[in-house]
Design a protein that fits this description.
The protein is an alpha/beta fold. It is built from 25 helices and 29 strands. The chain is 36% helix and 19% strand. The strands form six sheets. A seven-stranded mixed beta sheet has the order 9-8-11-10-12-13-14, with helices on both faces.
Length: 730
């Protein structure tokens, strides 16, 4: 069912709810759901559905959904899984917009469950009903009192939560309930994503006046490509924060190429989400704090962060936490340092991080004087206030509380006047003091952890960079261009899964990519003639579609001269046969030696969730040892390609070290964009590996290439869901 075929607003803001499977048993969810709606203040119509009783909690009960006299926007189905198809059949002639299917026993339970899930999706689409779930904990519209989960304490706020684990949702509800200033507008347990999927909620939340940021806990997306498209459109206005589980090496997929083996789930996910403007976090304790900061603070103009602390320990640890995230801790101007010296005792450190050295012990308004000097500094983009602020009335004397309250007001006004992000880290955060309440009322986050404070500032910087680059990044629309499809690949794609290096280079050369000159020799005489034509030493490599990693098979010889060409040809064939006696040997590839420049790797892999993704990094034989690579989703723009270059760590190598000249970055960008276009134009290509690619000041050369094919053409013109990930929404 296409997006928008049913008004999702009727589902998220229903004026009426049918509870299907309503019960008179107070221990059953069919009773508790009605009770929660009534007690929680839901003002819409509640229609219990049960053919065996007439009244529940003072409400008339109906035997079926179709017998309800009023219009039903949403049904909460709490029956066992096998009954759900019958219920959806009953909705055939109703105007119901959506249904929340709580039951387990669908795709997460195996083949039979998958069949049942397919059945209910088919029925829902036939009758114009959108499904949340199945295997979901439910949904909540917090501000309207619509609680279809039964969670006791879900504080109101401005964060929308999409979650694939009911237990994780409860953890986040509990965390928010113990903290001031953090709460939710909506919660959706997306469950198995059988119908409504992650991306379909984003546009609704973007338009929702009570939602300022979207929080996602993701185990696996059914259609990651659609999420990227939606996120790109939404994230510039409504920040999206994602915590993706399954980040360990266990989650890495196996594949025949370097690219495939290095395309770890977390590495790809973080990179492509960043490309779409989404902020990723790696720890659960960062999720709400980062989202809260993004929802309430201005975007940071840069990555230069100042630290103002009331102790040397906090100052140093704060600086360490920021540095670990590659944030800059700039030197303050002499003018700023002079202003700080005027406000602080001689023992204070005024260089950044700033340690007040007891200068605020008797008068906490000094924090304001220092902050005013710091945020006015042209070198500063954001400020972290670290230490005990908000707790002086507890730690020292109650009389300081009033002083801190006034200081909190001034700090908030100061940050707003300068449009500068301010995050407060305080050891007294858990005490919910009045100064902290004042800060939070003005949108200033207060957190206990230095690491979480640093994560919040890092997110503000990253989000600012992504918003600024949004118009130049990929729109994630893969458009099939059949008129540019490669005839070499098309002619070879009949039930083939692996091209030889020779065939791969043929295809790339035909597309105009910069491939090192090559010739296939099928005899020792042809090999000798090919070497002679190269006018210099050559590389000779076995050509076999069955041997991908030729070095492992002893199938590579370097610096071969004319005199050795014939013998080397025979040696390579013998080594390949010994390595794999069944391998089909087409001959030996002869190419001029390339031994100058930086070795790079460029690859493409068809990711299960996000479709075609390009990898770029330092290549050669140590590629999987160094793992200095970056990822982006196709199609690439020039800005995406440039970001790939900027993301890898070995910038000094690219810029030239020890007298070497810098590589031609423009040539690398052109290659990456060309690779993107090549894969997009050839849907048979499911994996591409160019390693090494030599980059010099003059340009780039593809020295080795491997192409993997999918005869069914799964690298489609547009990515559709191919993997249904069973989740456990409990």
């Amino acid at each position: 069912m296409p997006d928008g075929s049913t008004d999702i607003d009727r589902i998220m803001n229903p004026t009426s709810v049918a509870v299907v499977g309503a019960s008179t048993d107070e221990t059953k969810r069919g009773y508790q759901a009605i009770e929660t709606l009534q007690v929680g203040g839901y003002e819409g119509e509640i229609y219990p559905v049960n053919p065996s009783t007439d009244e529940i909690r003072g409400l008339d009960v109906y035997p079926t959904v179709s017998s309800i006299p009023g219009r039903v926007d949403l049904a909460l189905i709490v029956t066992p899984a096998p009954v759900v198809p019958q219920i959806l059949e009953d909705c055939a002639d109703t105007d119901i917009a959506g249904a929340v299917v709580v039951a387990v026993g669908f795709s997460e339970a195996g083949a039979d469950g998958r069949k049942l899930e397919d059945e209910i999706v088919s029925l829902a689409r036939e009758h114009g009903v959108r499904l949340i779930g199945p295997n979901t904990s439910g949904m909540i519209n917090v501000h309207e009192g619509l609680n279809l989960v039964g969670a006791d304490t879900v504080p109101e706020g401005n964060l929308a939560l999409l979650c694939q684990s009911g237990n994780m949702a409860i953890s986040l509800f509990t965390e928010a309930a113990t903290r001031e200033g953090v709460g939710f507008s909506h919660y959706v347990g997306v469950g198995n994503e059988a119908d409504l999927q992650f991306h379909e909620y984003l546009t609704f939340f973007d338009a929702d006046p009570k939602t300022d940021a979207v929080v996602c806990y993701v185990e696996g997306m059914s259609d990651g490509r659609a999420f990227l498209k939606a996120a790109r459109e939404v994230a510039t206005d409504t920040p999206i924060v994602v915590l993706k589980s399954g980040r360990s090496d266990v989650g890495k997929r196996s594949a025949s190429s370097h690219t495939g083996s290095m395309a770890g789930d977390a590495a790809v996910t973080d990179a492509v989400l960043e490309q779409a403007g989404v902020v990723s976090v790696s720890r659960s304790d960062e999720l709400l704090s980062v989202a809260n900061a993004l929802s309430s603070l201005p975007i940071a103009d840069g990555d230069s962060i100042a630290v103002l602390a009331d102790g040397g320990g906090h100052a140093t640890l704060a600086a360490d936490a920021l540095d670990e995230r590659d944030l800059s801790i700039p030197k303050l101007t002499e003018e700023t340092q002079d202003r700080l010296r005027d406000a602080l005792p001689d023992a204070a450190s005024v260089v950044n991080p700033v340690d007040v050295a007891g200068g605020t012990d008797d008068d906490q308004s000094v924090f304001v004087d220092c902050a005013e000097a710091i945020v006015a500094d042209p070198n500063v983009d954001a400020l972290m206030l670290s230490g005990l602020f908000g707790g002086y009335g507890i730690r020292f004397a109650e009389q300081y509380t009033d002083v801190e309250i006034e200081a909190a007001r001034d700090l908030a006004d100061l940050a707003a006047a300068h449009d500068t992000p301010l995050v407060v880290q305080s050891a007294y955060e858990g005490f919910d003091t009045e100064p902290h309440e004042v800060l939070r009322e003005d949108g200033i986050p207060v957190v206990e952890s230095l690491d979480v404070a640093a994560a919040s500032l890092d997110a503000l910087v990253a989000y600012g960079e992504r918003v600024a680059a949004a118009d130049e990044s990929s729109d994630f629309q893969l458009v099939s261009r059949d008129d540019t499809a490669n005839p070499t690949i098309d002619s070879l794609a009949d039930n083939r899964t692996q091209l030889s290096e020779f065939e791969s280079k043929q295809a790339l050369d035909a597309a105009g990519l910069p491939v090192t000159p090559f010739e296939l020799a099928t005899s020792s005489v042809e090999a000798r003639n090919a070497v002679t034509a190269c006018d210099g030493p050559v590389a000779m490599k076995i050509v076999s579609r069955d041997i991908v990693h030729k070095s492992d098979a002893g199938g590579v010889a370097l610096n071969v001269s004319v005199g050795d060409a014939g013998e080397t040809y025979g040696d390579l064939l013998a080594a390949a046969s010994e390595y794999d006696s069944d391998a089909r040997i087409d001959g030996v590839l002869v190419s001029p030696m390339v031994d100058a420049g930086v070795e790079l790797i460029v690859g493409v892999v068809d990711d299960d969730q996000f479709g075609p993704v390009v990898m770029f990094g330092i290549g050669g034989v140590f590629v999987e040892v160094l793992e200095d690579v970056a990822f982006r989703a196709l199609p690439l723009t020039e800005a995406d390609a440039q970001a790939l270059l900027d993301d890898i760590d070995a910038q000094e190598l690219l810029d030239g070290t020890r007298g070497n000249t810098p590589i031609n970055r423009d040539a690398v960008v052109d290659l990456l964009v060309s690779v993107s276009a090549f894969v997009e134009a050839n849907p048979f290509v499911s994996e591409l590996d160019l390693n090494p690619v030599f980059a010099t000041a003059d340009g780039v050369e593809i020295v080795d290439a491997a192409i993997t094919l999918d005869p069914d053409g799964t690298m489609r013109s547009d990515c559709e869901p191919r993997v249904q990930r069973g989740t456990t929404d409990d």
